Amino acid sequence: MAASVEHVEAASTATEMDKTEAPETIRDPETSDSEPAGQEQDPDPDEDGGEPPGPKIRDTPQDIRLEAIANTVALHPSRDLLVCGDVDGDVYAFSYSCTEGENREVWSSGHHMKSCRQVRFSADGLKLYSVSRDKAVHLLDVERGQLVTRIRGAHGAPIYSLLLVDENILATGDDGGTLKVWDMRKGTAIMDLKQHEDYISDIAVDQAKRILLTTSGDGTMGVFNIKRRRFELLSEYQSSDLTSVALMKRGKKVVCGSSEGTIYIFNWNGFGATSDRFAVKAESVDCIVIPLLKQILCFTKLCLSSIRAINLLPNRVIGCIGQHVGEPIEELAKSWDSRFLVSCGHDQLIKFWDISSLPNTTVNEYRKRKKKDGRMKSLTKKAHGDNDFFSGLVEETEKKKEEEEEEEEEDDSDSDSGSD
Q1: Which stretches of sequence are listed as region Disordered (predicted)?
Q2: Burial class (CB within 10 angstroms; exposed 0-12, middle 13-18, buried 19+) of 392
């Protein structure tokens, strides 16, 4: 069925929050102008200067609670704004801040008829693209949340993945294994190829915007040439679904996550077979985020609610970033300033994790022994849950233990560093 393109000019049904009608922030009674009688009426001017306390500044923004489970989250490329899409087909935009109580819903859109699976900002942050199980591609205006263009029936099967190649070109993959590349200036597909036997889980592109890489539930990675508009090759079959793909080492390495918890590593232009693999002993590695292009650190999202930081080459698990306690995580995204990692999970929460110090992490060549209690090293204050009253004490204790362990490990590091 041919895709139908609509350019929407009328006012959208999206609900934009009017700044003049925004709900008032709930203020601390101590700072309220209308305090009930009976409280301190004549404070001593010598006590603490008599000034009310200012707003509380947090290390990370507060969690954002949603009305439904979010499948996807994306962060604006130049300001503190995020967008998420949920299982009901709704798309929400929120501004976020480290000042307590300052997170705000900016607008919402309910144009998708089925679950929204991916949302992505354009490079300039002015446009937002979304895809859904309803087989449609939507283009929205970021400032107002209004629908600009709709491509109905963009695929013959529900759309699973989305990638913006540049300001005019985007790629989509569906549940049936079909990849399409779209020229949004015309609203038509310039590539329509089915090389995979199962869903296309993720899509990546090289820096030259020439080669597309796809991962699939059939266990292969696909290579497509955008410039020549043709299929190049499939990698060898792996033993499980390939769930994610990312470029590392300035484009010299390609890494793929899998449903069995193994990360597969390919050399660039050596896509036929893996050059290395790293079993992180997780049930699934479904999402990979690179904090900085020149860094070799990446984050793996594990379907059992945990987010870990790992290092590739040498292959080491560094520690735990955070978790959605007892609930699977759907997607990760990095903030424009690389300060926060954001996650959305089945607990209907969007969580923020401070990762500003991770790119400077030093990775030892030798393997560290596992802790006796089985807990992974905490890389953020909230790594093992938000409600740990003694988190500060635990961190100090863990640091002392790690220093003692490192002293012991230095004695036998030669015997531990030779195997992966």
Answers
A1: 1-60, 373-420
A2: exposed
In whole angstroms, how large is the CA radius of gyration of the chain? 24
Strands (E), 69-196: 70-75, 81-86, 91-95, 104-109, 116-121, 127-132, 137-141, 147-152, 159-164, 169-174, 178-183, 188-194
For residues 339 and 96, is the Cβ–Cβ distance under 8 A?
A: no
Stated as kind and residue range, the H or E segment containing 408 is helix 391-411
The CATH code belonging to domain 69-153 is: 2.40.10.480
Q: What is the secondary structure of 123-159 as a DSSP string?
A: TTSSEEEEEETTS-EEEEETTT--EEEEEET-SSS-E
pLDDT in tens, 281-338: 777 888 888 876 556 667 777 766 789 888 888 888 888 899 898 888 999 999 999 9
The two three-digit tokens of residue 17, written as one number? 């929050």
* DSSP single-letter state for residue 403: H
